[in-house]
Amino acid sequence: MIQSKSSDPAMPLEDVTKEPLSIWVRVWEAAKQGDSSGVEDSWTDLTQTPPRIVSWYFQVFRWLKNRAKQDDEKTTDLIVLLANELQVKKDFAFMYEIIKFAVQTWPKCGKFGPLAGRALKGLYGANPWFRSVASSLNGAKLSVVFDRFDEYIKLTPGQVWRHYQFGDGIITDFDMNTRRIVIEFDDAENGNKMKKEFSFDGANSFLKYFAPDHIVARRMTDLPELQKIAEEAPQKLVRMILKGHNGTINQSDLKDFVSGTIVAAKSWNRWWEKARLEIQKDPMIEFDTTGGARATLVLRSTPRSLTDEIREVFFNSNCSTMVDALLDMLDRLSKGDEVEDELPLEMQKHIEALATKPETSLIDKLQIAFMHEDLAQIGAKGTLPEACSTAAIIAKIDDYALLADISSYDYSVRALNMLYARDGEEGHELACALLPYASPKVAQAIWRELTKDKNEECAVDAIQQLLASPIDNPDTYLWAVHCILSGSWKALADAIPASRLIIELVNLLGDWVVMADKESVNRRTREEAKKLIARVRTMLQIRGKVLDRQLDFMPIRLATLELPSEQLAQLRSAIAACPAFNNVFCVGAEKAIQKSLEMLAHDAGEAEPMPEASPVDAGEGWHWCTKQGREKMSERLAYLQNEALPKNAEEIAKARAEGDLKENAGYHAARERHGMLLDEINILSMGLSSCKIFNPEDVDTTTVSFGVRFTARNLSTDAIESYIVLGSFESDLEQHIISYETPFMTPFLGAHKGDVVTATSVDGTQSSDYRIEEIAAAI
């Protein structure tokens, strides 16, 4: 806080770094002293990192007017300079606030009109109703435009409001003439939607509005993204929720907000266990872990110090979490962070007390001894009883399986090395026996030591045992599969070839799908099966080097190059029949196999050089579509994610509530529809991510190619047939729109007017000759 004379206000500040703060102070002090030249000299620098507090500018301009006697022309020029810089930075939200403040202060100034228009367009231009609202305010005073815009935009379709009785809803209809809106709410009793009509005034008076970036609004309009954040970064989701709840929420209210929507109700406990650990590490969240369900979470205005973070986690956790906290502290100290001098000593005393407790397990005592040594390395000297030293504890460990409870990779390696030094070659055999049951970190430590000492044969047996029981230890199984498929374990390639593993994985995926959907299977196994399906499916699609080219479906391509023809045929059949793969995956995998076979034949000199990509070829892993086709895909995906899937979730919940799931036809029908919806969402998502927009100007009407309409005479029936050539996501047999990737269309591609082409009919029943009669642009 800047100290000033009692007659002058203190400078309002938010959290800033030292560099912009010094610029702010220079401008603030110059204005306070009536030094307009000093303000102008620093203004350009200030626009690069401007204070985001409108009252700051009000005071600076007030001093310039009263103390520097600066005319309004120069002051408004400073505002224009700031606004233009904010526009360059695309900071339209603050640009809008500055121009709104300027219009209120200098209502007759003509400089702000164009800036106001650009700020409004930047802030609200993405709203489909922007032009309608702007047109209705054409000619109004800027002050009126700002007020009405703020009111109208909040009332356009897609905006979220809360009614005290009906809950949260989304506006579906908006009429400026009658000044009325329609909001769609969830009807919890009947399990469907209900629409209610409100006047503009009624909505503003009795309903609560949530801006599009508010967590409540995003829960209704952007649920899949929030679900992704919840899984990948739970602490980030909690920060967003805290921001939307004025910075504080208790644990039970957090559960009510998240469970059943962002996180499945049955997955809450698992998610909260993970989130809780991440929250405790987050420097921006205060969390009273002793309060149970009423424990309060608070969003901090400034981040906690490293000392605060470590204190909160280290002294209130189990041994594994203490190890993670200590190693995190040591890592951050090595990078220049600091802690209070007494903290390491407090940690040392804490672990010394734990070491002598009778209930402390042998493996926890070993981890405590390692922590004691690490703390001593940074100057926190302490004393452990001789019986609690690392050597004494290692001497007591007869069963290597105890190491499975060590969470740290570093500590696992230290323990293994001490055991190897004690047990010699027998130690490697004991470690091998542990590997199939160990956590990924411990397994990695074992693996490193085994391969370093060239114990490949022992290692192969351990990995094969692990691969035989994926459900028993899925995380370590996935680690091993990833290492094999990515080629990291070259020394074991002969014993465990990736190509053979891929066939096994495809067959296992089918088993896991059955397992995941079977109600008689216990819940943990179903969850593990789902995790394996998702992760293995992703691994099979990873990009990697194949014959010196970076390509997707790398593992499948490499298997194609290695497998004999009979086994490759088995793999292709297994992929096509596997219920874990949707149509997009199957098509992509088959294309990858075909391209790999072509590359293999070409490199062996058994085929003509592969031709240059034609305009119809979108490139490896891509496909063509029109702009309109992409928009339709996007609209369909949005409908499925925002309407169809939530409605289906309600159907499942309603059917589940009826009980007796085994004989509940409604429940099974809803679950089946759920799978179909997810498949379509996956297909559309992959289609959107791999499509290229075909430029209508590139349509080649000299040949049959993408974007043309052509007529051909069927020489068998003498009938004239007309077709439009587009992409797979735009195909419509009734309208004679055929994908350029279909077996029927492929023979036509590249044909000219007058050419005769042999093609199998669309339904695949017969082959006929066709003569091309006409070719014209269709897009």
Structure description:
By secondary structure, the protein is of the alpha+beta class. It has 31 helices and 17 strands. The strands form five sheets. Strands 4-3-2-1-5 form a five-stranded antiparallel beta sheet, with helices on both faces. α5 packs antiparallel against α6 (112-124) and α15 (306-314) runs antiparallel to α16.
Which helices and strands occur, and which strands form pairs?
Blueprint: H1 18-32, H2 36-48, H3 54-66, H4 72-88, H5 92-105, H6 112-124, H7 130-136, H8 142-153, E1 160-163, E2 167-175, E3 180-187, E4 192-199, H9 200-206, E5 208-210, H10 215-221, H11 223-232, H12 234-244, E6 248-250, H13 251-258, H14 268-281, E7 285-287, E8 296-299, H15 306-314, H16 319-334, H17 342-355, H18 362-377, H19 390-396, H20 409-423, H21 425-434, H22 440-452, H23 456-468, H24 474-485, H25 498-517, H26 523-539, E9 544-546, E10 549-551, H27 554-562, H28 565-577, H29 583-603, E11 623-625, H30 627-657, H31 665-689, E12 691-693, E13 708-714, E14 719-726, E15 737-739, E16 756-760, E17 767-777
Parallel strand pairs: 11-12, 14-15
Antiparallel strand pairs: 1-2, 1-5, 2-3, 3-4, 6-8, 7-8, 9-10, 13-14, 13-17, 16-17
Main sheet?
5 strands, antiparallel
Q: Please work out how many helical segments DSSP would assign.
A: 31
The shape, in one word, is globular
β-sheet strand percentage: 5-15%
Secondary-structure content class: alpha+beta
Contiguous uncertain segments of 5+ residues: 1-7, 13-19, 606-615
Order of strands in the sheet with most strands: 4-3-2-1-5
Q: What is the number of beta strands? A: 17
Q: Compute the separation of the termini in Å.
A: 64 Å
- Nearest-angstrom radius of gyration? 33 Å
Q: Quick check: average pLDDT?
A: 82
- In helices, the fraction of residues equals 40-55%
